[in-house]
Amino acid sequence: MSQQVRGVVAKGKGLPVSVETIVIPDPGPGEAVVKVQACGVCHTDLHYREGGINDEFPFLLGHEAAGIVESVGAGVTGVAPGDFVVLNWRAVCGTCRSCRKGKPQFCFATFNATQKMTLLDGTPLSPALGIGAFADKTLVAAGQCTPVNPAASPAVAGLLGCGVMAGIGAAMLTGNVQRGDTVAVFGCGGVGNAAIAGAVLAGASTIVAVDLDDRKLAWAKDFGATHTVNASTQDAVEGVRSHTGGFGADVCIEAVGNPKVLEQCFFARDLAGTVVQVGVPTPQMRMPDIAMIDFFGRGGALKPSWYGDCLPSRDFPMLVDLHLQGRLPLDKFVSEIIALDAVEEAFHKMERGEVLRSVVVL
Predict the structure, then answer these.
(1) Which DSSP string do the residues of 220-287 spell out, in sequence order?
(2) What's the fold here for domain 167-306?
(3) CA-to-CA distance for 142 and 124, rounded, in angstroms?
(4) Is the pLDDT of residue 252 over 90?
(5) pTM of this prediction?
(6) Which CATH architecture has domain 3-161+329-361?
(7) pLDDT surpasses 90 at 52
(8) pLDDT for residue 134
């Protein structure tokens, strides 16, 4: 029998979000209903509200979440009612050409729930990243539920569902940071600081944080940056080189989603170094105007990082365990705990750079 719960809905481009009554159907085959315990306010949700992802309004926002599986549909064997899970938006299919090549982290046909959640009048909702977790409960594909150690706080564990995993993975998986490497991270919000935390885990010897905001640079130091560069007062490229022996960094991570910042990353890396772009651009942005001879002559790699190239079933439990061991300070990402009706104000705080993560706790 369907249920009526509260959910945060974006009804139109740029309009303030509102808390609405939504209808959650019983789970069908391969689906699960999850009682959401916590959901982080991620910049991607703001992109949805602003029409920067697509125009399939109304959106049920929220995707960076943890909770308890309430019920499952026919054929579900990977999770069961009562499981504590982090929701993911990479429920791998196991049969696409990438999965068949043994690279499920690049799955090209990830699963979402088949049934639609709706408003009371029957209007179908588009759940953000196939999740829609700014709600008391949500309907997802069972594969979007990743069981993790229930000793972790939901407000902390849920952050792995998007931004924190994207940043950690950008460093450790896409960027393949190795012991002794030098790393520069451009943009020190939630994703950028997660990349710094990932570089620390990987054993980087030098980690240079680059931002325009001294408050964010202070956060970066707290996550393990060894040096900082305020790009509003000094040249970012020269600043990175000054802290890496004049050569540039082995791995430069762009965590802003801006062509100018990507260009800075390109020139701030060492010869044969790697540039990772994990910042999300808008559809109107274009690649920076870089001479092909520079692209050719500097060698190395330019790599986009989508979800940090993670495999949730492998990476979420490991990272939660590292947090519980005191080796990954996930709790430092939580700037404030808020109610469901405070999401709109949390967007404004994010835009002003006042928070790393506001987290809705239900």
Answers:
(1) HHHHT-SEEEETTTS-HHHHHHHTTTTS-EEEEEE-S--HHHHHHHHHHEEEEEEEEE-SPPPTT---
(2) Rossmann fold (3.40.50)
(3) 20
(4) yes
(5) 0.96
(6) Alpha-Beta Complex (3.90)
(7) no
(8) 98
